[in-house]
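QA checklist item 7 of 12: single-chain prediction sanity check.
[x] sequence parsed
[x] length recorded as 438
[x] structure emitted
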Amino acid sequence: MEGPTRAQTGLQQRQARGGILILGGGFAGGYVARLLGKRGSTIVSRENFMLYTPILPEAASGTLEPRHVVVPLRMMCRHSELVLGRAVSLDTAARTVRVETEVSASTAPVGAAEIHYERLVIALGAVARTLPIPGLAEHGLGFKSLADAIYLRNHVLRQLELAEAALSADDAKRHLSFVFVGAGYAGVEALAELSDLLRDTSRFYPGLKDIRQRWVLVDAAPKILPEIPTRLGDYAARELWKRGVDIRVSTTLESVEEHAVTLSDGSRLDTETLVWTAGVKANPIQGRLGLPLDDRGRVVVNSLLQVEGLGDVWALGDGARVPNEATPGRFDPPTCQHALRQARRLAKNLSGSPRPYRYRMLGQVATLGRHKGIADVLGLRLRGFLGWFVTRTYHLYQLPLLTRKLRVVTDWTVSLFFRRDIAELGMLGHPTSLRDDE
């Protein structure tokens, strides 16, 4: 039975709770709503959860249960109202946002609402940044959402099965070749975690003991992890090299085919897996809302986090160009660490007398697979097991809700004593048909 059309449902008129409307339930928007407390707000989000992206690679590798890397917004923001949908237009004069409401991110809109606000917060985040590379859209895999992580894990495990059943060694090698483009945090951590997964599971595939896995990390920059101090970046490169990772820096992706990729150094790699993690860009929806944007599509805000020229509209997170008084002349990078600090400042500005945003970064952390990591905290540079431990401790501290922290700690503890689960669950979300002929 088809759902009701927009004409049938009509246009609902709603008032934002507490007068504050937040577009986006990600890291920035979710934390603003949580920090507003009993004052309340209305959140418009495509999903009913906030994804904690720093530990997404561990969900892809099976170290963490996928549900444990997300936090339900209704639990995280107890005093906020949640509207599942997306903003399609903004009228700043009337202080209204038109929203297409939907049941989930995968369904067609089932209605429309016009939400009136006193103050509007734009926290629409970012999406994967792609380039017009031949074949990328058709054959590349992303790594930005929980669905991406689950699909990638299933895909990688399926390649093991296909390699085991391959009729020739060349076919098996193609299935066991994995190319990651983008050597920032997402690319390095995802590759490290998934290579650990396959190293653990390959013992159950005796027919592949003589077939060498191939992991290739490609980036246009002259070094991997350019955001961190050189010494830690060099350590990360050495650790990956010891695991047999082929690191191609100052190299770009030229084209993608169904069974191969071509790089700018002229090499052609036979593979069934191309993972694109080469950066993000501001959510393009912002351009349709008539907001002032910079040349990269980010919402332009002042040091109070107010949108330029709009006193009752605020913006933060990956989709905003946020000036930081602690680093004059520079704008905040799109990281969870900065989004959280922006959210803290904005929640205070919405509740009292606005003050400029100022935050000096405490450090940067990253994991490199099992018991390996790097951390630069307050000038103290850690690597190896200690870097890994500090990284996990920091992520656990930032994760909201005690129940989520306990679930994550339980997953981590179990993974210390038991081998990873190697079940490939690609059929999830695709129920068996009840028809007799299928």
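[x] summary fact logged: The chain has three domains: 11-128+280-351, 136-276, 364-416.
[ ] second reviewer sign-off
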